[in-house]
From TrEMBL:
Residues 52-100, 138-189 form the DUF317 domain. It comes from the Bacteria. This is DUF317 domain-containing protein.
């Protein structure tokens, strides 16, 4: 029997075990409210389309996508596309989408929306990921980001529990710093908050992730979670 009620708020790590969560507004809200991107909303199916003021970038959110690929970013010239699945943590997806205005030269709110410029190997090293050829692999070997520059989907982020549905794919010409921003927010050991019911069954019952309560801790919940992480062996 689960120690948590379905609607109880918990902290989860690693982030790639947490699924998307319920804060979709973090992905597209800043584009609309801070940067004035145009938005179209289909109330019937929940689809949302957002376009940059110059029409060069679009972000489409399709919550009922049959294959679970519910967020797509398209840049028209040069052409590239990024696709995120329902299993990708929204914190990492939001880090990608919120950096798009700076890509287009709109530096408003740049202090509040930092964009990493570190190469991926440094991001990996800071988060304890290891390099395997052109890939970077999480400490528990459950998640990997692979770079194959000579194919259309040059970057692919995969998770062992979702072998047929990558967490994210990035086509050639996707700016490296945008991929890096996604990766930095995916790989960081800092826990994310979820309703317990939103966590994948594989995380709840396979013991690959760490789940701790938000309420009831004697100290700051993030600190309590970090202390609980200490001494946990990496599953390999």
């Amino acid at each position: 029997m689960s120690p948590y009620a379905p609607d109880e708020r918990v902290l989860v790590s690693p982030r790639y075990m947490a699924d998307a969560g319920d804060r979709v507004a973090d992905v597209i809200g800043p584009l609309i409210h801070l940067f004035g991107w145009k938005v179209e909303h289909d109330a019937g199916n929940g689809d949302v389309g957002v376009d940059s003021p110059d029409g060069s970038v679009s972000v489409d959110f399709v919550p009922l996508h049959p294959l679970g690929r519910w967020c797509k970013v398209v840049h028209h010239e040069p052409y590239w596309k990024a696709v995120f699945s329902r299993q990708a943590p929204l914190e990492a997806v939001a880090a990608f989408t919120q950096a798009l205005p700076q890509l287009l030269g709109d530096d408003r709110h740049a202090e509040q929306i930092p964009v990493t410029r570190e190469p991926l190997d440094q991001i990996a090293a800071l988060s304890g990921w290891s390099a395997e050829g052109s890939s970077f692999v999480s400490p528990d070997l459950y998640c990997r980001i692979e770079h194959t520059p000579d194919v259309d989907d040059a970057w692919k982020v995969e998770h062992v529990y979702f072998e047929n549905d990558p967490l994210a794919t990035f086509m050639r010409h996707t700016p490296d710093h945008l991929v890096g921003n996604f990766f930095a927010h995916l790989a960081t050991p800092i826990a994310v908050e979820r309703a317990f019911a939103d966590i994948p069954l594989s995380t709840r019952y396979e013991h690959g992730g760490l789940i701790t309560p938000v309420r009831g801790a004697a100290i700051n919940p993030q600190v309590a979670h970090a202390l609980a992480q200490l001494g946990r062996p990496h599953r390999r």
